[in-house]
Design a protein that fits this description.
With about 210 residues, this protein is α+β, with helices and mostly antiparallel strands. Helices cover about 40% and strands about 25% of the residues. This is KCD17 protein.
Length: about 210
């Protein structure tokens, strides 16, 4: 008789366990449950709370088990067929909101994964970082182009006043009188002007013909 009662109680416990898990919605406290993710063969352990930091993400929907029916491995971890290398930084971003990368880790790789998991804030951060890097790499110091113009004294003011388009007056060299027009000596000047050419981040110069001038 005693043995029967024991078995009965075990059955009861099993049933109670089942009822707790399935029929009764879990109280809000148990939302911070541990979740195992098997990403491309590497197992990550994290909490539901971390995965749901970004409500719209694939990971949040996965662990809430709404519409995503994901396969699980033998340990019950969700199977995700993605590269585990880039998953660490993604998980850390959800944990503390910062993007921390090893120096040899490609941002493109992280971006690819962030887009797959649909983590909006992270996508924006990586794109900003990549643009900044692009900008600093291609931001070449300006080249200076110099021109020397020869003119006579009376043409000087007109020439300086009509200088435009980024040309800047640098220096004036008096080369004395080289011609004799009738009785008047005309003083000749060499006028040095310069212009800065910036290379824009796209690698194209703001002035397509600059090669000819340099």
């Amino acid at each position: 008789g005693v043995r029967m009662r024991m078995e009965g109680r075990e059955e009861m416990q099993g049933a109670v366990g089942l009822r707790c898990t399935w029929d009764i919605p879990p109280p809000s406290g148990t939302q911070a449950k541990w979740v195992r993710l098997n990403v491309g063969g590497t197992v990550f352990l994290t909490t539901r709370q971390t995965l749901c930091r970004e409500q719209k993400s694939f990971l949040c929907r996965l662990c809430q088990g709404e519409e995503l029916q994901s396969d699980r491995d033998e340990t019950g971890a969700y199977l995700i067929d993605r590269d585990p290398t880039y998953f660490g930084p993604i998980l850390n971003f959800l944990r503390h909101g910062k993007l921390v990368l090893d120096k040899d880790m490609a941002e493109e790789g992280i971006l690819e994964e962030a887009e797959f998991y649909n983590i909006g804030p992270l996508i924006r951060i990586i794109k900003d970082r990549m643009e900044e890097k692009d900008y600093t790499v291609t931001q070449v110091p300006p080249k200076h182009v110099y021109r020397v113009l020869q003119c006579q004294e009376e043409e000087l003011t007109q020439m300086v006043s009509t200088m435009s388009d980024g040309w800047r007056f640098e220096q004036l060299v008096n080369i004395g009188s080289s011609y004799n027009y009738g009785n008047e000596d005309q003083t000749e000047f060499l006028c040095v002007v310069s212009k800065e050419l910036y290379n824009s981040p796209s690698g194209l110069s703001s002035e397509p013909s600059h090669k000819a001038k340099v």
